[in-house]
Amino acid sequence: MDSIVKKLSEIESAAAAIVEHAEAHKAVLDDEFQGARRKFDNELEAKTQTRIKKIRDELERSTTKLLDSQSGANTDSIEALQKEYEEKHTIYARQILKRITEV
User: What's the 3-state SS for the chain?
Assistant: First the structure.
């Protein structure tokens, strides 16, 4: 009977050692997983920020280009209107006076 109890005690000790080793190994694996996850998260964040910056830069360039082209078109229109006014302001004034005096 003592030998059975002794054997059961040895088995229990061995099982406890196995469980203890498994727990320690689990903790190591958890640490490795957490490290890998943090690394992945950091890399993903860096890639995301790079992509966002690229999109913002592209948007800013296209907006600047559009504004520059609109500004140039507006300047051309204003210059054309000023030239027309300088050339025809007397004719316009006479037409206005004629309309006023006809009524």
Answer: CHHHHHHHHHHHHHHHHHHHHHHHHHHHHHHHHHHHHHHHHHHHHHHHHHHHHHHHHHHHHHHHHHHHHHHHHHHHHHHHHHHHHHHHHHHHHHHHHHHHHHC
Residues making up the chain, counted from first to last = 103
pLDDT of residue 72: 82
Q: Tokens 């006014």 — which residue?
A: 85
| Burial group, residue 17, by CB count within 10 angstroms (0-12, 13-18, 19+) | exposed
pLDDT at 71: 87
How far apart CA 65 and CA 73 sit, in angstroms, is 12
- Confidence at residue 73, expressed as pLDDT on a 0 to 100 scale: 85
- Cα 72 to Cα 74: distance, rounded to the nearest angstrom: 5
pTM of the model: 0.53
